[in-house]
Amino acid sequence: MFAIGVDERHLHQDRASGARNDWPGLVACLNDMRAGDVLVVWKLDRLGRSLSHLIRIVEGLKGRGIAFRSLTEAIDTTTAHGEFLFNLFGSLAQYERALIRERVTAGLAAARRRGRKGGRPPSIDPERVEQIVAALEGGASKASVCRTFRVPRSTLLGTLERIGWSGVGAGGQTAERRTAKSAP
Question: Does the pTM exceed 0.70?
């Protein structure tokens, strides 16, 4: 960066994921910039987390009289050619992300057709689920089932929801005990 005329005191870095919204280095850099400055980045994708974010940043810079330059893509928005390249690279990057998203979606659908079920495996095996349901339908409380089977309550509730257990036991009574307060 020093070879292109950037003073070391004006360097800003972030070491966070591109998907994150909080980039303190970028915020500090943008706040330090004044009209007539040029924002220099090593690569176009180092500036924004998405095409729309990137375009918003560069448009905001342009509105403040600040130019943009990307070293890898040789884009310099002080020229008409550089502005054209910025828009072209941004559009190509967005197109590539859309293609990747389509391929991932198609791959997941193909895997489902082959019988593969994605996601995290169930925390409770089917045999234990049957035992738990039998205990609940036999009148056991959810709290006692959690203690007996050593299952966290959130896991129990999620499993019961996933299997569609309605909570109705023998004779149409719910397994949850309810108390009624009579009027005095």
Answer: no
